[in-house]
Amino acid sequence: MYDQDLEINNFHILIIDDDQKIRLLLKQFLENNGFRVSDAENTEQAKIIMESLIFDLLVIDIMMPGQNGLEFLREIRQTNSIPTLMLTAMSSPENRLDGLEYGADDYMTKPFEPRELLLRIQNILKRFTKNLKKSEGEENTRFGPFIFNQKSKNLYKNDVPVHLTTSEQNLLKCFCKSPNTPFSREDINYSLGGNMEIRSIDVAIARIRRKIEIDQRYPIYLQTVRGIGWMLQTHEDNNDDH
Questions:
Q1: If you ran DSSP here, which 8-state letter would residue 183 be given?
Q2: What is the model's pTM?
Q3: What is the pLDDT of residues 184-201, one digit of tens each?
Q4: Fold classification of 139-238 (topology level)
Q5: Interior angle at CA 9, CA 172 and CA 129, nearest 5
Q6: CATH level 2 (architecture), domain 12-134
Q7: Could you tell me the maximum CA-CA distance found in the chain, to the nearest angstrom?
Q8: pLDDT tens, 110-163?
Q9: Please, which residues have CB within 8 angstroms of residue 206's CB and are 6 or more apart in sequence?
Q10: Which residues, at least 6 apart from 22, have a Cβ–Cβ distance to it below 8 Å?
Q11: Strand, coil or helix: what is 106?
Q12: Do residues 226 and 196 touch, judged by C-beta distance below 8 A?
């Protein structure tokens, strides 16, 4: 049933719905069609899961206890462009427009046919993948086997996601905006709008190095610039692909 033109084996979907039956039904159906699937019963649980895992698409129910799906979507859209498909029992045009205005990529009303949901998910991922490739030159920074997407703030090593905390994402984005350029602590603090303490910058640098360097004592990519601070060395002139 899955789209033969779409490589879905590495796509990871998060289902957020307070209805356990729907979560289990969708999880089993999507896994049977080749996706990796995680699920959460509310937005608070989803936020915890998203701290440690990287997802390619979210399926979000609108009507949930506590923070509803639209409020959650509006919150994550401030920092994350991950594709989303909204589910709701409300079918009025106003409700659909609300979801799209908040940044949803598609919208389905309950009850729905699982095969239609699958097709909509495939279409969203095809569009997103196509747009990502189209903008790769502008938004992706490559260094060695790593690719950092400045828009999503996701880091990949040989196409495998590397987990970063929010502070690590923001700091790496700062370096990727101007690779091969030295940054002082003050430069970084200014670039991040004063939202990261000086001490926190040093800690985040050390954590990023643990994830990208073979030997942290002799960093290849996130190098120390004596008397200034650090810079991200992409080795563009050396065509380094280690």
A1: B
A2: 0.56
A3: 999 998 888 887 888 889
A4: Arc Repressor Mutant, subunit A (1.10.10)
A5: 55
A6: 3-Layer(aba) Sandwich (3.40)
A7: 63
A8: 888 999 999 999 999 988 877 666 555 567 899 999 999 988 899 999 888 899
A9: 216
A10: 61, 87, 110
A11: strand
A12: no
